[in-house]
TrEMBL record:
Name of the protein this chain belongs to: Phosphoglycerate kinase
Annotated catalysed reactions: (2R)-3-phosphoglycerate + ATP = (2R)-3-phospho-glyceroyl phosphate + ADP
Assembly description: Monomer.
Source organism of the structure: Plakobranchus ocellatus
Residue spans of biased composition, Acidic residues class: 216-231
Entry's family note: Belongs to the phosphoglycerate kinase family.
Enzyme class: transferase
UniProt-annotated stretches for the region Disordered: 216-250, 409-430
CC per GO annotation: cytosol
GO terms classed as biological process: gluconeogenesis; glycolytic process
Keywords, alphabetical: ATP-binding, Glycolysis, Kinase, Magnesium, Metal-binding, Nucleotide-binding, Transferase
PANTHER family: PHOSPHOGLYCERATE KINASE
InterPro entries: Phosphoglycerate_kinase, Phosphoglycerate_kinase_N, Phosphoglycerate_kinase_sf
């Protein structure tokens, strides 16, 4: 049972050396005053100066909500509302699992206790790609939040409409508003070519007066067959042509100005900004995205909420100066996204385990292994050998799987065969999980690690028969945990899968579950959602992070 013991101060440190006590305590610091000041949460000027050197990691010291003057302010809070929803027996959409809303509800309550005048909640659900999808409405979330908060939550369907602005302008004290799914608007994620197509008769888009209107005026008629009539008709046609020409000129004059997509995004952001006086970022899973509601809300005060603060504090305390060896596990199917983290991780971690579909570009490039129909990415394959060279120079070992469970597609329940790197994967087959040999090798690495950070699954966890590799590594993590190592699960799928295993793996409770953003912080990435917040200190944190990596 290891208590953490720290000796601080030049003389005391010398004494500890003299009496051979250095190995018997956790840490001996020569700076006594400095250690105590760090413990109090102060930022030391010398360390601060180091952190400002070019090439240092981006700062993530941001102002927390608890230090903000919220009294009588309209507080906009970006929250994670992406919860599972299904229909009840009456066909009504309801939130199936309220657990994920507990954190958001607490943040809202805290802001209200700080005398906020009103709360405007910004969030999304699912991926409607800029289109209105009634299945993805936030209506069920509004209802679930009402139950948790025990106060009305008003869903505002038209985010940038006058009605919304009016409601939010001078709200009844204590009002809670929820903006409808932000992703119904292409301007939220910046999907310029969203599937939303202009309607054919949409004069705002085309600026073209409709031909039908001309016909309705009776100026275009069928031929009559009679000369007099024909003459009349000719005159009419001439008139019509003259009018058509006039129309065309009018068209040019009347063409309604169509704003560019960038202008639309800017207008969307301004509309959001008009609804709030203070902006609180409290959705850590979105903090790495440059979405409008993450980076584009202008407000007098911009700070992080308690959930984001907790994540940053965890990072500062456990991952800023981690116990080593520090092992990163990367997998899943977002091949490019996960690959792009590796160069940054090479400066931070000691070893990297690679599984999931991310392994295939590596195996294709390194072992020249046939990968059959496995998911891969040729642009990533082309970068692998350079990356491996840099890893070698930096002394980071990258471990690849040696065998696989194969199938014909991720959702096909066929009998699964196996293959190893020597045999390769035949055409028509995909590698869908890591095999037994790889699992044994990876488990050994995990057993020796002091800190493990994991993002992306080892296989297709949605199929029980293809989840074995992920399960085995999760079990290994829980065993390592008993020996005092820190384990961090970072990412939607791995966290959701681990949550389903709570009964089998009780110790999962001792594992920190977070978002891919933590892995990005570890890789030294700048997170856009943090960069837009006001700088600040972390006085609550026991160990202030020092940016000396
Ligand atoms: N070998 C594989 N082939 C195809 N899909 C895979 C493979 N391994 C994992 N996946 C898929 O990757 C997804 C999880 O990856 P990812 O989104 O990167 O993880 P996370 O959300 O945890 O960061 C799962 O849906 C899983 O089915
Ligand atoms: O990366 C994310 O979450 P994660 O870090 O928990 O995996 C984002 O929630 C991704 O969400 P999206 O796929 O709906 O854009």
């Amino acid at each position: 049972m290891g208590a953490t013991t720290i000796i601080g101060g030049g003389d005391t440190a010398t004494c500890a050396k003299k009496f051979d006590a250095v190995d018997k305590v956790t840490h001996v610091s020569t700076g006594g005053g400095a250690s105590l000041e760090l413990l109090e949460g102060k930022v030391l000027p010398g360390i601060q100066a180091l952190s400002n050197l070019p090439g240092r990691k981006a700062s993530y010291h941001v102002r927390p909500m608890r230090t903000c003057p919220l009294a009588n302010k309209r507080v906009g809070i970006r929250l994670d509302l992406d919860v599972p929803v299904s229909r009840d027996e009456d066909g009504k959409l309801i939130v199936r699992d309220h657990r994920k809303l507990a954190g958001p509800a607490l943040t809202i309550q805290k802001a209200l206790r700080m005398a906020a005048r009103s709360i405007v909640i910004l969030g999304h659900r699912g991926n409607p790609e800029g289109q209105i999808d009634p299945e993805l409405t936030l209506q069920p979330v509004a209802q679930a939040l009402e139950e948790l908060l025990k106060r009305p939550v008003t869903l505002l369907p038209d985010i940038s409409g006058d009605e919304t602005e009016l409601q939010c302008m001078d709200p009844w004290p204590g009002s809670v508003f929820l903006l409808e799914n932000l992703r119904f608007h292409p301007e939220e994620e910046g999907i310029e070519n969203s599937r939303v197509q202009p309607k054919e008769d949409d004069t705002l888009i085309t600026g073209t007066p409709s031909r039908v209107a001309v016909e309705e005026d009776g100026l275009v008629q069928e031929e009559s067959g009679n000369e007099e009539e024909e003459a009349k008709q000719e005159t009419k046609e001439e008139n019509a042509n003259a009018l058509d020409e006039e129309d065309e000129n009018k068209e040019v004059n009347e063409t309604v100005y169509e704003p560019s997509f960038a202008e639309k995004v800017s207008a969307f952001r301004q509309a959001l900004s008009r609804l709030v006086d203070v902006y609180i970022a409290d959705d850590f899973s979105m903090i790495q995205q440059s979405h409008s509601s993450v980076v584009g809300v202008q407000a007098g005060v911009r700070a992080c909420g308690p959930q984001v603060e907790k994540e940053l504090e965890f990072f500062a305390n456990h991952l800023q100066s981690p116990d080593r060896p520090l092992v990163a596990i990367l997998g899943g199917n977002k091949i490019k996204e996960k690959f792009s983290l590796i160069p940054g991780l090479l400066d931070t971690v000691d070893e990297i385990i690679i599984g999931g579909a991310l392994a295939f570009p590596f195996l294709a490039a390194m072992a020249n292994m046939p990968i059959g129909d496995s998911l891969s990415d040729s642009s990533v394959t082309a970068q692998v050998s350079d990356l491996m060279e840099i890893a070698e120079i930096k002394g980071v070992t990258i471990h690849l799987p040696e065998d696989f469970v194969l199938g014909s597609s991720p959702d096909n329940e066929d009998t699964h065969s196996v293959a190893n790197t020597e045999e390769g994967i035949p055409d028509g087959k995909m590698g869908l999980d890591i095999g037994e040999r790889s699992r044994a090798k990876f488990i050994e690495i995990i057993a020796d690690a002091k800190t493990v950070v994991w993002s992306g699954t080892m296989g297709v966890i949605e199929e029980e028969k293809l989840a074995g590799g992920t399960w085995d590594l999760l079990s290994a993590l829980t065993h390592a945990k008993f020996k005092g190592s820190i384990s961090v699960l970072a990412g939607d799928h791995i966290v959701a899968y681990a949550n389903t295993l709570r009964e089998d793996l009780e110790e999962i409770d001792m594992t920190h579950m977070t978002s891919v953003a933590t892995m990005m912080l570890l890789a030294g990435e700048t997170l856009p959602g943090l960069a837009v917040l006001e700088p600040g200190f972390k006085p609550v944190s026991k160990i202030i992070s020092c940016h000396t990596v």
